[in-house]
Amino acid sequence: MACEDEKNLVEILEENHPIDISKYTNYVHSPQCGAIATFFGNTRDTFDGKTVIELRYEAYVPMAIRCLKSICSSARSLWNLNTIAVAHRLGPVPVGETSVFVAISSVHRVDALDACKFVIDELKASVPIWKKEVYSNGEVWKENMEFLERRPEIGKIRSCCKPKVKVEGDEVVKTGCCGPKVKVEDDNGNA
Predict the structure, then answer these.
(1) Which helix (H) or strand (E) is 50 found in, with range?
(2) Which DSSP symbol is given to 30?
(3) Residue 95, burial from CB neighbour count under 10 angstroms (0-12, 13-18, 19+)
(4) Contact between residue 64 and residue 100 where contact means Cβ atoms under 8 Å apart
(5) pTM surpassing 0.85?
(6) In this predicted model, what pLDDT tens digit does every residue of 61-109 receive, in sequence order?
(7) Cβ atoms within 10 A of the Cβ of 29, count?
């Protein structure tokens, strides 16, 4: 495990510390690797027709770091990976800025790409990091679709929120989500 930890860089960044993309990309770069897959999670300017001002994140940091290290270990058990870097910001993240970043290097692209998707999906489903969306007319705490899909007793998932691509035999079938990931309501119960 010690050697494995040396090839993982997991950080939860305190408020007002932007993610240094170059730092994490340089960390995973290696001459023996032909692929680096990355994921940037950025604050977008609208959600469900509402103007988003910023996102605000809170976390139980010691547990979040343990969970992220466990996710990295799981990814390593599933794919042939060289180096993994994961960073998540806390506090306010204005529109256009990155709140979460994942970079993974491997000899071949398939391993890096598949592992990158796995890491971000697992992060959103299980790591104790909470997100509040701040709108021009209010704010609301949000739950990730991945979290709700694993815990159906918490909230109903719309039937259209299924995997976006599935394989049936030799045919790839694309499905889309026709609505927002999560129904949000303000303190007055208005959607």
Answers:
(1) strand 50-59
(2) -
(3) middle
(4) no
(5) no
(6) 999 999 999 999 999 999 999 999 999 999 999 999 999 999 999 999 9
(7) 13
Nearest residue to 84 via CA among 99, 69, 66: 69
128-167 b/e with 16+ CB inside 10 Å = b?
ebebebbbeeebbebbbbbbbeeeeeeeebeeebeeeeee
Q: Which tokens sit at 34?
A: 């032909």
Residue whose C-alpha is closest to residue 83's, from 101, 106, 65: 106
d(CA 113, CA 143): 25
**CA-CA distance, 87 to 38, in Å (whole number)?**
11
Q: Which residues are paired to 26 by β-bridges?
A: none
**Separation CA 35–CA 116 (nearest Å):** 11
| Burial (CB count within 10 angstroms: exposed 0-12, middle 13-18, buried 19+), residue 14 | exposed
Please answer whether residues 143 and 155 qualify as being in contact, where contact means their C-beta atoms are separated by less than 8 angstroms: yes
